[in-house]
Specification:
Elements: E1 6-7, E2 10-11, H1 13-21, H2 24-34, H3 40-47, H4 51-63, E3 67-74, E4 77-83, H5 85-88, H6 91-103, H7 152-157
Antiparallel strand pairs: 1-2, 3-4
């Protein structure tokens, strides 16, 4: 579970999520893990990242519960890094970020696209509300509201009437 953090008096689940994945090497490592990379040398070779930076990021991903470090060889001891359920749950975030990046490029400029694994047809991912299947790309149609664990400050920030134009 992602922790709730308080930064300088601000509670915000976006901050809690960002502390785990917003370093750009982290996103690239996670992307490689989704592509099936598990071993240190695979990550290093594919990303061109220094061994010290990769070691630091992998330790953080393991500490955050996004990757699990497992031995795959005993002599000498070697480990692989496998996505946990929590790490797997970031798949839609990686897809959404990639789709956003691709949407700013002409089709011929895209170096990577998402395709249906069965048909090979390119897909255009969108984010929708699970209960209504309405697209969430209209930022005026949806607003944040204070949740059950919100502080008084958070409640004051989001104290507005749903359905009003204010």
């Amino acid at each position: 579970m992602v922790s709730r953090i308080n930064l300088e008096g601000r509670e915000n689940p976006l901050c809690a999520a960002a502390q785990h994945v917003c370093e750009w090497w982290t996103l690239l490592i996670l992307h490689d893990a989704f592509d099936g990379y598990t071993r240190f040398d695979q990550f290093q070779e594919n990303l061109g990242i220094s061994s010290s930076m990769l070691t630091t990021r992998l330790k953080a991903l393991v500490a955050d519960g996004l990757l699990e470090r497992r031995p795959y060889q005993t002599n000498p001891v070697r480990h692989e890094y496998v996505l946990t359920d929590l790490g797997q749950s970031l798949w839609p975030v990686i897809v959404a970020l990639t789709a956003w990046g691709n949407s700013r490029l002409a089709p011929e400029e895209r170096s990577m696209v998402l395709v249906d694994a069965t048909t090979g047809e390119e897909v255009d991912p969108i984010v929708v509300d699970a209960s209504t299947c309405r697209r969430l790309d209209d930022s005026d149609a949806y607003v944040y509201a204070a949740g059950p664990a919100a502080s008084d400050a958070m409640r004051a920030r989001y104290d507005r009437k749903i359905g009003s134009s204010a």
